[in-house]
Amino acid sequence: MAVAFKSDQQSVARALYEIADCHFGAGREEEAKKTLHDLLSRDLKAGGWAGRRRQTNWNARARQALHWLDGNSLNGLSLPRWTGCRAFPEPQKSEYLDKYTAAPKVSVKAVGIAPDDARFRFFRRKLNLRGVETPEKGGYPVTVALDPAAPVDKPEGYTLKSGEKGAEIRARDRQGVLWGLVSFLQIYDWQEKRMRHASLEDWPDCPQRGYLGRCCVDECEFMLFNKMNITTAKPNFISQGIYTPLNLYKTKCMAKEFKDLGLELYYGFAPFTMDLCWPLCWNVFLEMQVENAKIWASCGVGIYYPYDDARYWDDVYKQEDKDTGRKPSDFDVEHLLKFYNRVKAEYPDFKMEFCPPFYWGPSAGHPYPDDRNKYLKSLQKLPEEVSIFWTGERVGSHRKNKAHRDWYANLIGRKPSLFQNKAGPHYYLSYVLDEMPWDKWFYPGFAAEDMRSIQKNSDTPEDYPILTTLADYLWNVNGYDRKRAVERGLDQYAGKGVYATLKPAYDKLCQVDGYKYGRIHSGVLHEDLAAWEQASKEIHEATEKAREIAGPKVMRGFGSWERAVGWFDGVVKYIRNPPDYHKKYAKPYAVLKEHLAKDKKAAYDESKGDIFIDPLYDMRGVAAEPYPSTKKQPILPTSSVAACFYENCRARFKFNVEKVPAEGMKLWISGVSTGYPKKFVVELNGETVYDGANPFFVRGGQGAWTTVGFDLPAKNLVKGENIVVMRNNSGSGYPIWVEYAIVKERRDAAPGEGK
Q1: What pTM does this model have?
Q2: How far apart are CA 358 and CA 408, in angstroms?
Q3: Domain ranges, residue 467
Q4: Which residue from 241, 395, 569, 659 has the least number of CB within 10 angstroms?
């Protein structure tokens, strides 16, 4: 019987990649390379979405393997692109002279450290790739000394002095040697092949600096030139336990880069901790974890063991475990100890990071059926070398409080490792040129003294630009400058002129933040179409100029810039042709009118001059969405007017009065909140008129609407246009849904404050 094979491009790409995988496993490396290059030369459309299912990008997998097979290690980004002959991150102490010495050749003399150490191999390779020869003698002399008496008596510290007669790098540990060599490459003038005269005395403030991200082949190179030393690849080459020859090869190559250069690399173990539906009380679950972890450890990677969001879900916290009469706070640490010790016994270099289900606190509550303090305290039984994550007071908190940190540290019995969520200022995303307020969020001593490591939760390489600012802050806390960090980090990563090219466009692009993720609200009725169209033209022109400088590879992972550009153009379309919400949501609006007619609290009476605030036309803020937002046929037209997606997030509406009533006015809001927001703030013309508990919060879900009244004092009202601003002040991204608002003169002596 004849067998029919699919011949679509996705299937062809998969077949070619898997043929290459077979070649490589059989020891035929050249044939594997040839097949992978053949795959890429065909320019097949592989990856993307098929219906609701995401398809594997076989082209990307081929490029990953060829990165190492073709010898592109540590040079895929061609860093440093441009530094202005200055070290980055900003050194602790530095002096730069406007003097240079020709150095078309560079000779290295190693003292106290092997001349073939990986740090020197990396250094020579970078020089050679750009046409700088590295003979043993006869070039610009660079003496590198691993010296216990070096001037900087701090971990990873170094001194670098360069002048007419040569350069000298001195450090007390190998990582100091590495950072001294990186600084040399940053100070060197690549265009003129000459060395700048300079003197640096330098060390990092934060002991472990990095991020959690995706598994990118350029990770190590990016980290080196930002002087970071730890990263966690959550999705990675062996995430699903598919141990093909090429997957193992890529993992081993990546791990070797990190280990040789003294950097820490962890792979996310989530498929074996939360995704499998096996109870912990089954011994086979531990065996499965250990056997897989040994494969990972044999490749040289540490394991990030997450027990965060899903730990108490029914498909993870199984009935068999519940039937034992013990809770995770009783037995998780026992399981972790068995797991860690068994892998460690066979692989002594094995390292582990752990994210507990309670990774925030103390003041923010939790929804889990367990004792948070007991669970965290049990983790003291883990060896001190196991890193434990924390996010701050809340899952997405920005500002860190020392009392909160001490509470967590005392419970777990060690310094925490920070897992920084949601740092981007554009609804948690980054638009490349953002001046990040790390110095505002982290209290003095937080990075240098109170944390074991600081890692930002990232989507790499998309977040590389924002990570350069974090690198600059963590290296030199007191010397951090927000604008300088953005500009110089971007120069090094993307190239000279990218910042200047994008800055005018960035200022215009940020206008789209008024429409969360491009979602539309009544603001489009009031925008200047010509201004937005002109801004769109300038943004696209700037983007193309930046692409010419940075190249397509960098621009593909350029923060969320191009995503925001797409949103911007989408908003322009709606400004040009605004939606008719009353027509689109005719049935939900009919339900709203029924609710309004039955609302005895608001008691809306148009004939008496009461002002109706339409949720989709009159409320301008985060977004106008149907409630619930996940249904195509909404129950109600609503506006998520108070969700705090970033620090200064506000929702507002306007109303006019011909004469200010002596007794003031009343604002009635019909709303509901089923998530985390615990505080609510109402401002009238810039003055706070309510700052207290969220009166709309109810447990019970859809339909549990509450009408609440807020006083609008006469002293805060003005004749003509008045502006009401609302927000939840909890720092959470969960919205308070508003069905409608009513503004009216006070006609009651003591109105009720809710149903």
Answers
A1: 0.90
A2: 10
A3: 209-495
A4: 659
